[in-house]
């Protein structure tokens, strides 16, 4: 595994034009310097494995270099990079047939955080993990990208490979499903706590009777 702080493009595709290759080198290295931390964070939250996330981050940037010609507008490079990283993650999910998420525990961004971000920032690790696992994969990815990585609607659409309208609809469904899943998890926890209290009371009563 290459160190995360050093981007290796040894596996890059050959470019016939030395000037174009130099331009791609400089552009991707600049992207790496500015965005490797957040791309790594996104991939780590998806796979929950630091070494695998580091390898996937390297893979994402190598793919970005190889597909440099597909970047139509450098102003949208961040969204383009997330799209590549998302595809790398999906490839890993298909290979391993597992999907795991961890809750966000960092600081909230923006002046008016959504209900989903508040929930994700509330350190509800157990209920949130289980709630996220209840909703479809694309909805989980949409929430993660929009709520934790601050992708705009257009960036989210580009990352997921859908229209802006479809991305908004997907995110709306994801938010509603997450609310329902969290409510179900909280209800289940409350029921479990009630049952545990009853069992404890029964044990205490039996202990008192035996004495």
Secondary structure layout plus pairing:
Layout: H1 18-47, H2 50-66, H3 77-96, H4 115-121, H5 125-134, H6 137-148, H7 153-160, H8 164-210
Helix pairs in contact: 1-2, 1-3, 2-3, 3-7, 5-8, 6-8, 7-8
CATH class of the largest domain: Mainly Alpha
Rg to the nearest angstrom? 22 Å
Relevant CATH superfamily of the largest domain: RNA polymerase sigma factor, region 2, helix turn helix motif
The beta-strand count equals 0
- Mean pLDDT, as a whole number? 76
Q: How much helix is in the residues?
A: over 70%
Residues in β-strands, percent: under 5%
Q: Which fold name is given in CATH as the topology of the largest domain?
A: Rna Polymerase Sigma Factor, Chain: A
The end-to-end distance, rounded to whole angstroms, is 64 Å
Structurally, the number of domains stands at: 2
Order of helix and strand elements from N to C terminus = HHHHHHHH
Number of helices: 8
Instruction: Please outline the major beta sheet.
Output: none
The CATH architecture assignment of the largest domain turns out to be: Orthogonal Bundle
Helix/sheet category: mainly alpha
State the low-pLDDT regions, or none: 98-113, 118-124
The shape, in one word, is elongated
